[in-house]
Design goal:
- It is built from 5 helices and 11 strands.
- It is of the alpha+beta class and about 240 residues long.
- It is globular.
């Protein structure tokens, strides 16, 4: 009887050891689990990028959700519009601190200032005492004033609309890219999102094979901007 008990105990110990070994090898991963691995440093491109990161149309939304934007930063954004026979370029200087965003851009009426806070949106021109104010503000208001530098629209898409995704270099940053067709007009849009800081570094919009819009971000500075930039003007 004693030998029988020892045999049973031995079988249990061996089974437990095998279970631990199998778990350590496979980590509990099932066939439905998407493997996502991003390089920690260094610029890669082309076929090298594909071998370093398993980012594809099925996994790209989940990967982007793991990224987060810095609370404070500044950068310059260039927005380019193209149409038959011409085009235009707009340069925006952007400062972000917490929930506030300050944007400066030149226009035909002079330097335009836009301040987005939790209270609302302030717009005024240098040299003018007139201030426009609207209390209509949402989580995407500042992104829209930055000429659609946001990727929430990509995250809300049905995954079937995403036609391509991967990892590449863009604007000097290691980026995840995703290409999809827009629900409203069927444009082909490609977005580039920095792995290092979670900021959208660029957007390209095509009507068929024709480029009609492009936004490119300069290298961001992650230091906190001067607090005075976010003081609302007197209305």
């Amino acid at each position: 009887m004693k030998d029988k008990k020892l045999a049973i105990i031995s079988i249990i110990v061996i089974a437990a050891a095998v279970t631990v070994l199998l778990f350590s090898i496979y980590g509990g991963v099932t066939a439905d689990t998407a493997a996502v691995t991003l390089p920690s440093a260094g610029i890669v491109s082309g076929t090298d990028a594909d071998s370093l990161a398993d980012v594809n149309p099925k996994t790209v939304q989940a990967v982007i959700k793991t990224l987060s934007r810095p609370d404070s930063y500044s950068r310059t954004v260039t927005a380019e519009d193209y149409w038959s026979g011409g085009g235009s370029t707009t340069t925006l200087k952007v400062w972000v601190s917490g929930g506030s965003t300050r944007i400066n851009t030149d226009s035909a009426d002079g330097a335009e200032n836009i301040l987005v806070t939790s209270d609302g949106v302030y717009i005024w021109y240098d040299g003018s005492k007139d201030v426009f104010f609207s209390d209509k503000v949402s989580s995407t208001t500042a992104d829209r004033w930055m000429r659609a530098l946001t990727y929430e629209s990509l995250l809300s898409l049905d995954a079937s609309r995403i036609t391509g995704a991967g990892y590449t270099e863009y604007a000097g940053e290691n980026c995840i890219w995703a290409e999809y067709s827009t629900p409203q007009f069927g444009y082909r849009e490609r977005e580039y999102i920095s792995v290092a800081n979670g900021l959208l570094m660029g957007v390209e919009t095509y009507d068929g094979d024709t480029l009609i819009y492009r936004t490119t971000s300069g290298a961001p500075t992650l230091a906190a901007p001067d607090a005075s930039l976010f003081t609302p003007p007197k209305k």
